[in-house]
C-alpha cells in the first residue's frame, strides 16, 4: 500500500505539536504506524515514543500491526490506553509515597453495593425517595455522575447544576461525597480514579511531576476528539515541555459529550494546552464511494462549528449504493437478496440512535426468521424489564389463572415502577395471589405514603379486570394498561435522567405500534415478546451508533430516521443547539460506517422524516456520484453546486464534469488572477482562510493563505481547489 501525499506529510512531520484531522476511514492506523516506524528509523529511541489508543481492542490491533511491520528484533515503543497509563502512574506514585495506596474495585456490583449503603444512610427518613433512589437504573445514573465528576474535573455541585438530572436526584452530590469518604476509609478506588488520583497527585506534587516528565519525545494520540478533560490534563502532564504531541482524530466524530468529551478538544482547547500546532488533513477515505462522502459533507456542514474539511473518496473505493425507504419491509428484502447473492449476514449492521428504535427491527427480523445479534446483550427486547412486564399484562388477559401466580403479579408490579421496593412488594403479591383480594391492612402497606398505597391498589384493580378483556386487540389492551397506570408519568418520574425517561416512553409507543401490526394474532405477539431468543452470531448485527464507533460493514442500514427519534427530542425534552450538533455528528458517524450499501430507513406516518435525511442530500449525492463514476456527460444540476464543485475539485475530476455541475448556479471556482490580500477563500481540503500575500503574475500567481485551521500555506492559485467566500 502506497501512502498518499497527505499521509506522507503526517509521517514526516518534524518537531513540535501537530494535529491530524482524519475523516472516517482515512487510514489513520496505517499512517500512525508509518509515523512510528519513521521516528524509529530516524533515530528516536523506541522508549521515547508513546502511542495512546482509545480502548484495549484498538491498542491490541495497533500493537500487533506495528510488530508485523517493524524490523525484526527491534525494540518497540509503548502502545497504551489512558487507563493503563493511569494505572502505571498510580503505582509509581504510590511507590514514591506521593499517593496513598488504594485497591481497585473491579466489580460493578461492589460499587453498587456501596452506593446502596450510602443511600440507605442518607435517605433514612425519606422511604419513598429511598425506594426510588435504589432502583437499578437510578443507581447506575448516580454512579455515572460520580465518574463524570472525575472525568470532567469539576466540583460535584457544579457538575450537578450543569447536568440535566431529573426530579428526586438532589441526593447525588451528598452521595458522591459520602462515597468518596467511604472509599478513602476502606482504601479502595474506582476505574475513574485510575486517572483522577494520579492527576491530582501530579498537580500538587512538584517533585513527583519532575520525575515523570522529560521521559518522552513523541506522544501520538488516537481518537483525540473523544478524550475527556482528565485525559487531556494527564496528557499535558506527561508531555511536559519535552514531548511533541500528535493528536489524531476527527472533531466531527465527537459523540461522547455525555462522557465528558468535547469537539473543542481538537480546536481551541488544544491551543490552550499545547500552543500552536502544525495541522495536517487526511481527507481521503478508503471506505466508501462518492455518494456517501458527499452525503457526509452535506450533513456535517449544517453544524456551525464543524471543521470545513471535505471527505473525499479514494478512486478504488467501492461505489456505495444508497437508498432511502420507509417501513421495515424493504430491509427484509435487502437482507434476503444479500443472502441470495451468497453474501453473509455477518457483513450487515442495522444501526439505531437509541435502543428503543431497534425494537421494531428486532420484532420484524424475528417474524421473518432472519438471525440477528445485538451489540449489547441486555438490550434484547425481551430482557428489558418494561417489555417483560407489559408482555405479562397481555398474557394475564389470555390466561386468568396467572392471577394466582405471585411471581407473575410481582412482575406486573415491578414495571412501570410503583416506587416501592421489591422486598416490600413480594409479600404483598404473595398475599394477593393467595386470597385474590386487596388487603386493607397489611404490614407492607404500613409505612407507605398515601399516594403509594393508592397506586398499588389501583394497579390491583386493573390487574383483576384484565381477564375480562381477553378479546381486545393487544394494542388496545396495552394502551388501556398504559393509560390506567399513567405509565408515562411514572416512567418520567422513575428516570434519573430526563433522556432515559423519554427513551422508556418511546419504547412504550413502539410496542403499542408493533402490537397494532399483529392485531389478528395476540398470542403470536405475546409469544414473540416472551420468546427466549439468543444472540445468533452468524446474524445481522443490531447496534447503537455509539457502539459502531470505529467500525465498518459492507451493508449498513440506519433505522428509525424520524424526527424526534433522530435527532432525539420531545416536547418535554426539547433540543438545544448543542444537542442538535451532537445528534448530527452521530448521524455522520452512522452513515460513514457503510462500504457497499447504505440504507436510510424511516417509519411511516404519523412519524415525520428526520431532518437529517433532508440535510444529507442523498438524491443529489447519488446523482453526482453516478456522474463521477460513469464519467459521461455533464454533472447533473444539484441543489448546492458550490459544495459539489468543491468536491469535484477535491477529487480532481476533469473539467467537463466540473463545469456542468456548476451550470445551474455558476459557482466561483479558483479563477486565476485578480486575487487580493485580505480576501477570504475556501480550500477543498484546508477549509477557510485569508489571503495574506499575492506573488507572481496572473498566470503563475502564488498565494500565501492563513487558514483558520490548517495554518499558513503557499498555493499556486491556478491549481489550488480554492474559491472566494463572502
Ligand atoms: N494510502 C492508502 N491507499 C490505499 N488504502 C489505504 C491507504 N491507507 C489506508 N488504506 C486502507 O484503508 C483501510 C483503513 O485503514 P486503517 O486500518 O489504517 O485505518 P483505521 O485507522 O482502521 O480506519 P479509520 O481511518 O476509519 O480510523 C484499510 O483497509 C487500509 O488498507
From TrEMBL:
UvrD-like helicase ATP-binding domain ranges (all copies): 1-289
Domain UvrD-like helicase C-terminal: start-end pairs: 290-550
Organism domain of life: Bacteria
Family: Belongs to the helicase family. UvrD subfamily.
Catalytic class of the enzyme: isomerase
Organism: Kushneria konosiri
Catalytic activity: Couples ATP hydrolysis with the unwinding of duplex DNA by translocating in the 3'-5' direction; ATP + H2O = ADP + phosphate + H(+)
GO-annotated molecular function: 3'-5' DNA helicase activity; ATP binding; ATP hydrolysis activity; DNA binding
Binding residues annotated for ATP, in chain numbering: 22-29
Protein name: DNA 3'-5' helicase
Keywords assigned by UniProt, alphabetized: ATP-binding, Helicase, Hydrolase, Isomerase, Nucleotide-binding
InterPro entries per the UniProt record, alphabetical: DExx_box_DNA_helicase_dom_sf, DNA_helicase_UvrD-like_C, DNA_helicase_UvrD/REP, P-loop_NTPase, UvrD-like_ATP-bd
Gene3D superfamilies: 1.10.10.160, P-loop containing nucleotide triphosphate hydrolases, PCRA, domain 4
EC number assigned by the record: 5.6.2.4
Amino acid at each position: 500500500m502506497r501512502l498518499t501525499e497527505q499521509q506522507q506529510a503526517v509521517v514526516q512531520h518534524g518537531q513540535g505539536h501537530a494535529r491530524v484531522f482524519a475523516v472516517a476511514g482515512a487510514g489513520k492506523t496505517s499512517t500512525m504506524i508509518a509515523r512510528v516506524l519513521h521516528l524509529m528509523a530516524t533515530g528516536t529511541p523506541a522508549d521515547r515514543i508513546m502511542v495512546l489508543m482509545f480502548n484495549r481492542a484498538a491498542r491490541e490491533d495497533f500493537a500487533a500491526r506495528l510488530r508485523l511491520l517493524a524490523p525484526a528484533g527491534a525494540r518497540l515503543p509503548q502502545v497504551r490506553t489512558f487507563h493503563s497509563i493511569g494505572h502505571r502512574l498510580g503505582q509509581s506514585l504510590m511507590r514514591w509515597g506521593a499517593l496513598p495506596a488504594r485497591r481497585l474495585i473491579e466489580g460493578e456490583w461492589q460499587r453498587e453495593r456501596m452506593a446502596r449503603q450510602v443511600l440507605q444512610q442518607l435517605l433514612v427518613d425519606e422511604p419513598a425517595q429511598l425506594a426510588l433512589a435504589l432502583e437499578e437504573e437510578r443507581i447506575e445514573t448516580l454512579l455515572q455522575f460520580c465518574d463524570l465528576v472525575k472525568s470532567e474535573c469539576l466540583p460535584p455541585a457544579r457538575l450537578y447544576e450543569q447536568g440535566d438530572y431529573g426530579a428526586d436526584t438532589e441526593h447525588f452530590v451528598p452521595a458522591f461525597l459520602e462515597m468518596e469518604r467511604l472509599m478513602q476509609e476502606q482504601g479502595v478506588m474506582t476505574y475513574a480514579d485510575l486517572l483522577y488520583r494520579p492527576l491530582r497527585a501530579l498537580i500538587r506534587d512538584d517533585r513527583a511531576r519532575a520525575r515523570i516528565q522529560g521521559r518522552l519525545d513523541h506522544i501520538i494520540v488516537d481518537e483525540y476528539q473523544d478524550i475527556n478533560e482528565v485525559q487531556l490534563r494527564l496528557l499535558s502532564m506527561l508531555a511536559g515541555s519535552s514531548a511533541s504531541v500528535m493528536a489524531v482524530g476527527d472533531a466531527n466524530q465527537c459523540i461522547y459529550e455525555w462522557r465528558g468529551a468535547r469537539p473543542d478538544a481538537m480546536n481551541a482547547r488544544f491551543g490552550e494546552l499545547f500552543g500552536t500546532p502544525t495541522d495536517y488533513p487526511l481527507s481521503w477515505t478508503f471506505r466508501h464511494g462518492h455518494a456517501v462522502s458527499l452525503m457526509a459533507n452535506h450533513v456535517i456542514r449544517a453544524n456551525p462549528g464543524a471543521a470545513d474539511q471535505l471527505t473525499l473518496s479514494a478512486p478504488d473505493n467501492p461505489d456505495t449504493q444508497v437508498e432511502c425507504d420507509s417501513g421495515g419491509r424493504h430491509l427484509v428484502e435487502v437482507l434476503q437478496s444479500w443472502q441470495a447473492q451468497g453474501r453473509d449476514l455477518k457483513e450487515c449492521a442495522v444501526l439505531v440512535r437509541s435502543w428503543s428504535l431497534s425494537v421494531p427491527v428486532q420484532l420484524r427480523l424475528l417474524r421473518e426468521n432472519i438471525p440477528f445479534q445485538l451489540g449489547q446483550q441486555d438490550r434484547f427486547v425481551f430482557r428489558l424489564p418494561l417489555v417483560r412486564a407489559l408482555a405479562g399484562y397481555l398474557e394475564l388477559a389470555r390466561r386468568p389463572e396467572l392471577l394466582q401466580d405471585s411471581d407473575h403479579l410481582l412482575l406486573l408490579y415491578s414495571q412501570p415502577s410503583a416506587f416501592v421496593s421489591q422486598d416490600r412488594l413480594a409479600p404483598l403479591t404473595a398475599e394477593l395471589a393467595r386470597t385474590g383480594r386487596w388487603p386493607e391492612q397489611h404490614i407492607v402497606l404500613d409505612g407507605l405514603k398515601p399516594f403509594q398505597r393508592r397506586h398499588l391498589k389501583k394497579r390491583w384493580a386493573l390487574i383483576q379486570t384484565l381477564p375480562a378483556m381477553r378479546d381486545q386487540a393487544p394494542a388496545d389492551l396495552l394502551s388501556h394498561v398504559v393509560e390506567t397506570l399513567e405509565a408515562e408519568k411514572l416512567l418520567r418520574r422513575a428516570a434519573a435522567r430526563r433522556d432515559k425517561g423519554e427513551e422508556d416512553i418511546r419504547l412504550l409507543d413502539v410496542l403499542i405500534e408493533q402490537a397494532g401490526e399483529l392485531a389478528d394474532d395476540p398470542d403470536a405477539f405475546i409469544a414473540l415478546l416472551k420468546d427466549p431468543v439468543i444472540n445468533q452470531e452468524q446474524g445481522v448485527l443490531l447496534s447503537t451508533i455509539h457502539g459502531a464507533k470505529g467500525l465498518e460493514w459492507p451493508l449498513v442500514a440506519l433505522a428509525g430516521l424520524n424526527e424526534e427519534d433522530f435527532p432525539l427530542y420531545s416536547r418535554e425534552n426539547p433540543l438545544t443547539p448543542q444537542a442538535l450538533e451532537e445528534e448530527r455528528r452521530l448521524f455522520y458517524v452512522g452513515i460513514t460506517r457503510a462500504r457497499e450499501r447504505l440504507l436510510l430507513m424511516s417509519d411511516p406516518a404519523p412519524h415525520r422524516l428526520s431532518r437529517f435525511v433532508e440535510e444529507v442530500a442523498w438524491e443529489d449525492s447519488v446523482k453526482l456520484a453516478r456522474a463521477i463514476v460513469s464519467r459521461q456527460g455533464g454533472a447533473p444540476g444539484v441543489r448546492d453546486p458550490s459544495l459539489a464543485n468543491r468536491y469535484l475539485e477535491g477529487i480532481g475530476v476533469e473539467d467537463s464534469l466540473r463545469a456542468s455541475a456548476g451550470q445551474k448556479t455558476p459557482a466561483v471556482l479558483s479563477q486565476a488572477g485578480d486575487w487580493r490580500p485580505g480576501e477570504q477563500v475556501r480550500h477543498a481540503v484546508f477549509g477557510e482562510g485569508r489571503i495574506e500575500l499575492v506573488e507572481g503574475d496572473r498566470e503563475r500567481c502564488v498565494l500565501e493563505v492563513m487558514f483558520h485551521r490548517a495554518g499558513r500555506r503557499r498555493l499556486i492559485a491556478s491549481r489550488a481547489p480554492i474559491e472566494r467566500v463572502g
